[in-house]
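Dear support,

I submitted the protein below through the web form. The confirmation email said the job was done, but the results page showed an empty box. After a refresh the structure appeared. I'm attaching both so you can tell me whether what I see now is the final result or a partial one.
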Amino acid sequence: MSTKYVRLCAALCAGAVAGSSSSAAVLFASASSGARAASATFDTSGTDLVITLTNTSSADAGVPSEMLTGIFFDIAGAALSLSRSSVLLDAGSIVLNDPAPAGGIVGGEFGYRGGLAGAPHGAAYGVSSSGLGLFGPGDLFPGPDLEPPASPDGVQYGLTTASDPGNNNNGGASVPLIRNAVVITLGGLPANFDPFASIHNISFQYGTGLDEPNLYVPAPGASGLLALGALALRRRRR
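What the results page shows now:
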């Protein structure tokens, strides 16, 4: 599928660390095509990589191929062995068609793997709520199995849009979905890791198979870098 609109930019962040001022780059990526739209921020907290994945479409998604189920990416340099820390509902996001998970923990429905083979665009790293032929029971984040089986599987716990009422989806009330964002934390980054300089080859996966839509985010061009100041996003480092 061709991506009609893509955007990749860095947000410069400033904060206090141990009483001194420092800055770090936060990578923001987004893509859209037709009724599908997604975004991701790649941030750091100590040695953790923190990814906020959001279904940003304003459409009322109704079929599996309109549900955002995964994100793939590469990291420049030597391969990293990242650990699965957590997947949590983002602030304001809820689960449709299933009870609210304790503490917002949905990690038991998501898998992560590095060293992937056969992922979209040859990416080595990925996180997904669906198996996609790449993720299995041994790849799950910590958390209870909210919807059997105990493996990334099907469209359940995929990300639907903020406009989805949840009562008109393929499968009806039997399909639990997240409206509309999760925060994914992976541990094991090296010191002074810079997401903007290191993460690339990002794509957003929809549905339950790799033959379903995938929105690719190309590398930033000069125009994207020139727009950096206008797209600045500031955060306070802990």
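Response: this is the final, complete result; the empty box was a page-load delay. The longest strand covers residues 20-33.
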